[in-house]
Amino acid sequence: MKWNTKKLPIKTKTTMNEAIELCKEMSEFGHGSRLVGGCVRDLLMEVAPKDFDIATQATPDEVCSFFKQKNKVIPTGISHGTVTVIGKFSQYEFTSLRTDKETDGRHAVVEFGDSFEVDSSRRDFTINALSMDIGGEIHDYHGGMSDIQSHTLKFVGKPQTRIHEDYLRILRFFRFWGQTGFEPEANSLKACDLLLPESTNVSSERITDETLKLLGSQYSKGAISHLLQTKGWQKITNTKPLIVAKDLDWVLKCSNRDQMKLLWMIQGVDTGRLKLSKKQLNTLASLERFHILPKQGWEDQAQKLLFAEKTEAQTDQPFPDYYGEFWSDYNLHKKTYQNSVTTELVLTDRQKGHLRRTKPPKNGHKIMQETGLKGNKLGKAVEAHRVDYLNEKISP
User: Model confidence over 88-131: pLDDT tens digits?
Assistant: First the structure.
């Protein structure tokens, strides 16, 4: 397998060339250095790397000493061997080659070394254990290139050993499954399922980050479906999903693969172990306010929203198409909500599947005339009427 840069953006090529030059300088100083990890994987997959990480035989002090004369150097994680060097076009993390002396399931006490092969053995997945030297040669100690060719995701060495070193690797496994679309190797997936209940020492911030990355992934269906079927989603987020695996196709369609919409459709506003930002929490609150939350599962709710009168359940196919069209009329932007909050879609012709817009019988002006309410109280009354209209299907 060969790597090439023909399809890379000019900016990425420039950054990569600078990273290689820094490696050459360090090598001329007597310390071999290589591009490692995700950037090498991405080059082989003909994807533009987001950053270029470098592994070096130099110690952190030697890296600082060498570069501080002409570059800004930041001791990012010097106790773990990582130093950030600021270049002309980007910044680059130099990490000393290491071996783990102690691990606690999340962090490690390391000892610096000089073997690229030994260092690669402590990485998580075979596709992330690749390195490229200054001559452009790819070094593969664990079959990562063949796994890229066969689209296989698996741990380096024994899966349970890698996971016991750092339980975050379970979440990373599902996230990489979603991002690459690779087939999870059986023993690796089995180890993740087995050890997932032990991952209690992973912080809420990292759980949130990995979960949202999975939800925003191009090939997330397989990983999410597996987590729903094995109750892994509950173990990770400490929430009870509102959907089951068979609903996932149309949930992905309805959410447009938007992270927050998808999260809300899966688990509502219950955040569990997820530590969301204020903006993200407000997004979930808006989704709950301006949509009817599923109380008994999405199929029943879809029927309630889309059928103007009670009918025999049609669970075999109508929900994906109908609900997708229903969902597409919503926008998270507040200005859009101000104009569309009283407008809902209801099914008027089941046979043809046509949808039309219809408004609740009473608008804000009429409710104000009848009740004398103003301001927030009036707004709540209008919203209550809208919800009653959808729930009970008041005739317009």
Answer: 999 999 999 999 888 888 888 889 999 999 999 999 999 999 99
What CATH number is attached to the domain comprising 162?
Answer: 1.10.3090.10
Q: Does the pLDDT of residue 334 top 60, yes or no?
A: no
pLDDT in tens, 245-289: 887 887 787 677 788 888 988 888 889 999 999 999 988 877 766
User: How would you classify residue 63: left for phi > 0, otherwise alpha for psi between -120 and 50, otherwise beta?
Assistant: alpha
Whether residues 7 and 143 share a domain: the answer is yes
Total number of domains in the chain: 2
CATH number of the domain enclosing 61:
3.30.460.10
Question: Does pTM top 0.85 for this prediction?
Answer: no
pLDDT in tens, 175-191: 999 999 999 999 999 99
Query: Which of 120, 150, 180 finishes a domain?
Result: 150
Residues 119 and 9 in one domain: yes
Range of the domain at 213: 158-290
- Same-domain status, 252 and 232: yes
Which range scores top for mean pLDDT: 189-198, 265-274, 308-317?
Answer: 189-198
In order of 86, 150, 289, 323, 336, the CA distances from 306 in angstroms are 56, 44, 18, 8, 22
User: What tens digit of pLDDT does each residue of 147-178 get?
Assistant: 999 999 999 999 999 999 999 999 999 999 99
